[in-house]
Amino acid sequence: MDFEQPLPREVKVIDSVSLFRLEEQAVDLRLSQRLDPAWVRANAAPDGTHYLWPTLWHSLSHRPDVPRQVRCELLITLRAGDRVLSLLDVIPDDFTPLPRVTSREEGMQVRRLLDQAPSVREWLLREGEGPDRL
User: Fold this and answer.
1) N or C: which end of the chain has fewer CB within 10 A?
2) Rounded to an integer, what is the distance from CA 22 to the centroid of its chain?
3) Residue 91's closest CA among 26, 12, 40, 36?
């Protein structure tokens, strides 16, 4: 992939099956930003809508065999309807084909939700669970 390529400017909307797959792949590739897939499966709404907002390119210079990744802010809809913020590194071949939000208004709404959502760590602390649950 061309290192001069601009960061994707598409907000992606994903279902829970896609979220689980992306988290599992991030673990398999030992990417830097990811959650424990077991935690995601236990807490993400099975029929929820989740969003990826690209923030920067990331690469593992010590592991040239791993393609660079799009580091995304990840908005997860939880089973109880809460939303939490995390980060997720996604390789471009997986990011590009994901469906994108359909309008500027939807994208702006996602940005507001991202700005207001507690991090997974903050949510765990608020729920009385330690961040070691990840």
Assistant:
1) N
2) 8
3) 26
